[in-house]
Amino acid sequence: MLRAPRRRGFTLIELFAVVVLFAVLTTIAISKFGQSKRRAYLVSMKADLRNIATMAETQFTMESSYADVRIPAQGSSGTLISCQSTVNEWSATATHPGLPGVTCQLESAGDTQPTCLESGS
Q1: Order of strands, edge to edge, in the sheet holding 90-95?
Q2: Which contacts qualify for 80-86: CB closer than 8 Å, 24 or more apart?
Q3: In angstroms, rounded to a whole number, what is the distance separating the alpha carbons of residues 84 and 35?
Q4: pLDDT above 90 covers what percent of the chain?
């Protein structure tokens, strides 16, 4: 009685299917990572603006003026902050090098939450 030779290993098609599946999963993971990074930068910019609001309101409580609100030039994780203030109001903007074209803003005479806009939108 002749026996069929026993097959060892995987066929080329089976190996190809595994490689394709791995490539698809890797593409999905990279896409999700990029979106997570973007959200992290946005959250960082908004948190820095809320901290500026706290500083400005603390100064107003102590001095009855927003003039010369002192803020750090750079916020957390590379966020760049600028602030303009007068006696009665202030506004601050935040940008991040990891999100070119996106600017978040918060004002004393406006919404209590920072708003973020992409240039061109």
Answers
A1: 80-85, 90-95, 102-107, 115-118
A2: 81/48, 81/49, 81/52, 83/52, 83/56, 85/56
A3: 31
A4: 52
Q: Under a CB-based contact definition with an 8 Å cutoff, are residues 92 and 106 in contact?
A: yes
Q: What angle do CA 106, 112, 117 make, to 5 degrees?
A: 40
**E-state strands within 58-120:** 80-85, 90-95, 102-107, 115-118
Alpha-helix runs per DSSP H in 1-121: 12-63
Cβ neighbors of 109 (< 8 A, separation 6 or more) are 89
Taking alpha carbons only, the member of 18, 1, 24 closest to residue 9 is 18
Q: How confident is the model over 15-62, as pLDDT tens digits?
A: 999 999 999 999 998 888 878 888 999 999 999 999 999 989 999 999
Residue holding tokens 């593409």? 27
